UniProtKB/TrEMBL annotation, chains A, B:
It comes from Danxiaibacter flavus. Signal peptide: none annotated. This is Methylmalonyl Co-A mutase-associated GTPase MeaB. It comes from the Bacteria. Keywords: Hydrolase. InterPro entries: GTPase_ArgK, P-loop_NTPase. Belongs to the SIMIBI class G3E GTPase family. ArgK/MeaB subfamily. The gene is meaB. One of its GO terms (molecular function) is hydrolase activity. Its EC number is 3.6.5.-. SUPFAM superfamilies: P-loop containing nucleoside triphosphate hydrolases (SSF52540). The keyword Hydrolase applies.
Length: 342, 342
């Protein structure tokens, strides 16, 4: 690897070449470029994306969620090490919607999976999640593509299962894994309503020592609950597995299950269909994001929105009347400003 | 009630007065006005809404969903008749996202609840659902407001639990009731993933004759499943009840439960908080709807969208590149056209 000077700027070709050669430093710089809010950076990032796109997609994308304390990092470290031990190249993108992107949180994340982060066949990167309106998965998706082009064949996207981001993550992965605990009391686990139904598998972690009996009972309960849901379009029956990330038990079994899923979904065509739908949806999400971004960042809208919201909340103005008033206002005031953010 | 001539047009004041006096014919005409796609009708409708808004809201809004065959209409007829028998005024708005709004489907809906529709203290009206992008609940919400101003104190919104509309309905009601069957095999019930978690109560219908044992078992299973979900913001524990709509059993109990919920939610403040959030969200939904409506109805977008979608689906163009290309195109081509639809 070349020694880089801080100020050195790459061309789109240099970025693309570096990424395709698996250069970690250029990959990291490219991800920073993707996450940049500068207009000029955005244009360059899109050119890079266009160049590397043909080299993406031949991978397995796994979303992993669960509340803090469920042992996600420990699991991902054990799982990632297992995958590199069987010859896989693993990229882990973590999304923490509760933390702003500071040096602190980046170091924090890296420290959490230190062993994996130091593995030459793995790459751990926290993903920016500053934007709330679709921004999370837009940037994360593009980061995922860069990692794929850099040669990683298993992409793990980790998110905390208590916010909105895991819904977005479901829309960008092939397999969605939910990590739960037994015996913590289901009400206390605080998993967001709706997440359980999105799971392709539920992993009950910390199934070790005195906790095994409780985990077996929880496994049965979750299996019963999953059974109540209508089948997914891909006809996959979500499974419940036990695991002890700390004792490295259930790790290989999880990979086996994911492989079973992959074979199942590729055989019945749903794997590819899902990817196509996700791509199309991604485009519409980006459109929706910018339409709303432009609207809500319009100066005159910003000024009057709180008052209109308050009038609508308290029943003084019908929602539709307030909405149209704001729409008209944006049209008159904001027409030309919107260009700059594209 | 006055005899009306077909061509007679009302002013906003005449609409408002008629509605507040509980005139069913004017109410029906006002709902048609709300559902109209004509620009001039929209303006009049919004003025009417503004006038009647102070007389809305002091009601209970109940969403009812379930797959076809679960017995929703039979239940609503029995439930509605029970409510009118204890002095309530009941409006039933039905949303069938699968049927276009034709004379046929309107008559069909009315026939389904004939007894209730002929009750002087009830009003049954199918709600148009032509628009998919948020249009369903936008029109239904406004229709609900008109019914409230006309003096109905329980509003029932019925929808088929297999599409997207019940998610919208959850966002406009105080209490969300899911009607299920026992013994049909959960996989066969085809209820959309995510719906069960939105329920404030699950009613297992057709709990009569030989079916009672199966229903009791199902009740336990659903209660276990509901237990797995995190509590809602309102701290209400969703309940499972048995009922036989055809034998009019479990009807009064359902009303008791809903009243319990109302007391609970009003005591802890979540009832009003939920309404305020819904109102604010409604405004943002309308904004989002029109932003997207304008974009996707732009002539030049319509022309190129299929090709861009196809390129994105098959991985030829990055989603973000296609999205921005389309956004730029809409901006250049469509600027002034958008005004007319507000």
């Amino acid at each position: 690897m070349k020694k880089l000077f801080k100020k050195r700027k790459y061309s789109a070709d240099e970025y693309a070449q570096g990424i395709l050669q698996g250069d970690r430093i250029i990959l990291s710089r490219a991800i920073t470029l993707i996450e940049s809010k500068l207009h000029s950076d955005n244009e360059l990032a899109e050119t890079v994306l266009q160049k590397i796109l043909p080299f993406t997609g031949n991978t397995l994308r796994i979303g992993i969620t669960g509340i803090p304390g469920a042992g996600k990092s420990t699991f991902i470290e054990a799982f990632g090490k297992y995958l590199t031990s069987i010859g896989k190249q693993v990229a882990v993108l973590t999304i923490d919607p509760t933390s702003r992107k500071t040096k602190g949180s980046i170091l924090g994340d890296k420290t959490r999976m230190e062993e994996l982060a130091n593995d030459v066949n793995a790459y751990v990167r926290p993903s920016a999640s500053g934007d709330t309106l679709g921004g999370v998965h837009s940037k994360t998706r593009e980061t995922m593509l860069l990692c794929e082009a850099a040669g990683f064949d298993v992409i793990i996207i980790e998110t905390v299962g208590v916010g909105q981001s895991e819904v977005s993550v479901k829309g960008i992965v092939d397999f969605f894994l939910l990590i739960m605990l037994a015996g913590a009391g289901d009400e206390l686990q605080g998993i967001k309503r709706g997440i359980m139904e999105m799971a392709d598998a539920i992993l009950i972690n910390k199934a070790d020592g005195d906790n095994i009996t409780a985990c077996k009972r929880a496994k049965q309960e979750y299996a019963n609950a999953l059974h109540m849901f209508a089948p997914q379009e891909n006809r996959w029956n979500p499974q419940v597995l036990l695991c002890s990330a700390i004792q490295k038990m259930g790790i290989a079994e999880t990979w086996q299950l994911i492989r079973q899923f992959e074979i199942h979904a590729k055989e019945n065509g749903s794997f590819n269909r899902n990817r196509q739908t996700q791509n199309r949806q991604w485009m519409h999400d980006v459109i929706s994001y910018y339409l709303q971004h432009n609207f809500y960042n319009n100066g005159s809208i910003k000024d009057v929105l709180p008052n209109q919201e308050q009038r609508v909340e308290t029943g003084k103005t019908p929602a539709v009347v307030a909405a149209k008033k704001l729409l008209k206002m944006a049209e008159v005031a904001g027409d030309k400003k919107t260009c700059e953010i594209y």
